[in-house]
Amino acid sequence: MKIIFYLFATFQILYAVAQGPYQINLDLTASKEDRLLVVMNLPDIQEDEVEFHLPKIVPGTYRISDFGKFVSTFDAFDHLGKPLEVSKISINKWLISGKPKHIEYWINDTFDHMEGYDENFLFEPGGTSFEADRNVFVLNNFGIIGYIDGYKEIPFELRVLHSKDTYGATALDKKILNDSLDLYIAADYHFLVDGPIMYNQPDTLTKNIAGAEILISVYSPQKVVSSYDIMENIEDLMVAQSNYLGGTLPIKKYAYLIYLMDYPSLSKGMGALEHSYSSFYTLPESVANQLPQFVRDVAAHEFFHIITPLSIHSEQIHNFNYINPEMSQHLWLYEGVTEYNSMHMQVHQGLYDNETFLEKVQEKITNASAYPLVSFTEMSQKILDPAFKNMYRNVYEKGALIGMCLDLALIKYSEDTLNLVGLLKQLSQKYGKENAFKDSEFIDVITAMTYPEIGTFFSRHVQGNEPLPVEEYLSWAGISIRKGGEKRMALWGNFKLGLNENNQIIALATDHLDAFGTQIGFQENDVFHKLNGKELNLDTWRALLYDFQENTLDGSKVKIELIREIKGKTKIIKRKAKAETYLYKYPNELIISNESTRQQNKIRSSWMNGL
Fold first, then answer.
1. 175, 201, 227 — which closes off a domain?
2. For the chain, how are helix, strand and coil distributed in percent, rounded to 5?
3. What confidence category does residue 104 fall into, taking pLDDT thresholds of 50, 70 and 90?
């Protein structure tokens, strides 16, 4: 067999490989203009014409990403190194004529503005960043690496050449070949893209918790937050989560990858994207004092994805179609139950008191009431459709309440011998990470494992569109709803607040201003300077806005100063307006009855405190 070598920086790549995996090579040291060259040797291809795919959508995002649009050049070669004919047949597909053995393409990152790509920016936790000047690289592999259609169920080997002063943090299996070359091995494409990698100057910390290796890696440009700060704030949470799951964790390794931004994000968002063995966060560095707690709050949710969907998932997730995805009916499980567990675990393990937990539940009730009543399974299955996509946030609200109702029902009907965590353990044993359930049969399976009443609950309130029986189910635990009062509150404008590159608070999404906002005339990217003579900045804005909305009387005078760029010049805009108020209804309050029966006390103690 003739072997031809291709020189790639300091290591070599085989053009022709006998039977074997994909071999992908990334040279981070050769990145330029926020682009990476992807060099890929392919397994033996049998067809004379094949398609190369990059993902249109990836698990956990529930929105279209179209990573193919970030590719700038694409070339394919046969086993002799001869160029093959390539034609682009859609945003994410290339048709290759001949049997390709080697592929090369340049790909742009997603964190930065790309010419010709002016809207629908990707949420950064699901994107990529190649910052050669800072020597930091965010490798969400689904945004970089593609596959030959029909050949994604075979092993992938990824070699990354990097500078000696950086370290690649990930939950993937990793071999350090030398001080500047790492090898990652994945069983198939699904596993490869499920493991983000972040390269930066090392700020990592690893600790063994409940039998699992927990890794935290932080990129903080101004060094305001460290991996030690994050670990100090989430260690007790991790211990509590392991205790909640029975004392050990069902994983050997988990990675928290945290990228702090000292510039405005294109998406104007912050948060995290979950993976089976890791989660990747992008957060603004400017609010450093709030970051450890924010990570703690998000981590409480993201970590529980080691149960769903890692160990309990449908065929749609197990065999995910990255080009034409079919959505599962069970977002109530993947996101709703995960969100519920993140709350319930904290009261169950003593991190919340009962009152705090009930406040969290009431907040979910209030937020869920803003969404129309629809079949939750239908919404889940059609979440990409225009009619349903704006309802996605409800999976964290009503979805969590579905989990709560299911938990209370299991405790009641089993006479305290089974709860939701116990059911999840049984489902994990029945399926596990290698076996998927059939989407249309899953609720019947749960009903057969539990009680007819559970099937009725799903039929009416999850598959059907009847309101959740929250008040009835809470009454089983001796908890009632006290109706909230009313108060007049000042309108503020009906827009979003954001930060610019100077960490100044700015106005965003000003397309639908309310009456007060129209009086002032807020414009996109206006910088807030003063409110009623008091400076409005990162340190003062919460207190000032709270005082303004709570204590401003209808018709009273309001003075606002804005900083606005007009024709390239910065000007201070002074505005006066009359305050306008609306009737704000305080949310209801959940209270524990002083006259609970013995049975109610028993259910409540078991449910909230594990007693």
1. 201
2. 30, 30, 40
3. very high
